[in-house]
Amino acid sequence: MHHRVFVYGTLLSGEVNHHLLAGAQCLGPHRTAPTFTLYRLGTYPGLVRGGVTAVAGEVYRIDGAVLLRLDALEEYPRLYGRLLIPSPYGGTWVYHYRGPIAGKTVIPTGDWRGLTRDPVSVQAGAIRNTRNAKTQAVRQALGTGSGQGGTPPVVRKEILAANERK
Question: Which helix (H) or strand (E) holds 46?
């Protein structure tokens, strides 16, 4: 079974977690309806329901195995939930942040890439040069980027089950 997912942060092409979308088909760019708020949560963003911001990102067509990898990265359903939004490509999943937002910085443009790619911004430089603890922990759990290789047994079992249902 295939799904569509809207990505707006570290999963964007050229960003640190894009490798988790290996095998996915990029359907194209998209900007959501202006019904969200995008927060900077350190070295990654969090989209929150409610607000007046149209968030910029990309839509991908993914299979069940990729969805499981993304669920692990986003700590779904504890830290992030999934919400179905409209896109030019059909109904599309987006991960929305469920954690605390008090004291977090709003990204008023709704554009994570614009924030992190600004060559003169000290904030952008700090984001690019800081290791993401969430990403590091998930990479180690998934066995990617940590030098360990392989997929942990629980994730491997879920991936195999998803492939059998195809």
Answer: strand 45-49
Helices (H), 33-132: 64-73, 112-116, 122-129
- For the stretch 67-90, pLDDT in tens is 999 999 999 999 999 999 999 999
- CB-side neighbour CA atoms (13 Å) of 120: 0
Determine whether 74 is an active site residue.
Answer: yes
Q: Which of these, 140, 138, 118, lies nearest to 127 by C-alpha position?
A: 118
Q: Which of these is catalytic: 15, 58, 74, 75?
A: 74
Topology (CATH level 3) of domain 2-164:
Hypothetical upf0131 protein ytfp (3.10.490)
Q: Residues 81, 98, 108, 10: is their CA dihedral positive or negative?
A: negative
The residue extents of the domains of the chain are 2-164
77 upstream amide cis, omega within 30 of 0: yes
Record the pTM: 0.78
CB-CB contact of 128 with 116 (8 Å): yes
